[in-house]
Specification:
This protein is α+β, with helices and mostly antiparallel strands. The protein has a single domain, classed as 3-Layer(aba) Sandwich (Aminopeptidase). Strands 1-2-3-4-5-7-6 form a seven-stranded mixed sheet. Helix 1 packs across helix 3. It starts with 5 loop residues before the first strand and ends with a strand.
Length: about 160
């Protein structure tokens, strides 16, 4: 039986937990848009920005738990007409990405307003076979906020 994770709102995560996660060098190496170390104000501003997405789009990023253990954050963010999926795990849970992504895509497949999902992966992510197993196809390199990413897309609605 595949592992399952619980998705909750980011408001449930203590700011100090987010600060620790986002300041971990093992996490930061995969976040080229992250500049400077985080403090409590950054964590609160981040959660407020993600809550604004929930209010505007009806969907956003979640806090992700395995039982009572916070494993990271991730979810869907509307970028133009596309729903982009992002996932930032605590270093101790890096191996959980595929199971969490599968569960999130299952959620997306139940919502017709999400006909497809895109992924932007930084150059530090070299193992991309998992995306192919999810049905994602490469769209090529893109520049986002001055940083290079590889973009992928997977359909969520039946053909």
């Amino acid at each position: 039986m595949p592992e399952t994770y619980d998705f909750a709102r980011l408001t449930q995560v203590p700011p100090q937990t987010l600060v620790q996660q986002m300041n971990d060098p093992r996490v930061r190496v995969h976040l080229p848009l992250l500049s400077g170390l985080w403090d409590h104000a950054d964590a609160r501003a981040f959660v407020a920005a993600k809550e604004t997405r929930w209010q505007r789009d009806g969907l956003g990023h979640w806090a992700i738990y395995k039982g009572r253990d916070y494993v990271g954050w991730g979810g869907f963010q509307k970028e133009g007409s596309a729903w982009d999926f992002g996932l930032v795990l605590r270093a101790a849970h890096f191996g959980a990405g595929m199971a969490i992504t599968r569960q999130a895509l299952s959620f997306a497949r139940q919502h017709p307003q999400i006909p497809y999902v895109t992924f932007l992966l930084p150059p530090s992510r070299r193992h991309l076979r998992g995306l192919a197993r999810l049905g994602a196809t490469p769209l090529g390199p893109v520049t986002f906020e001055g940083q290079r990413f590889e973009k992928f897309r997977t359909e969520t609605l039946p053909a």
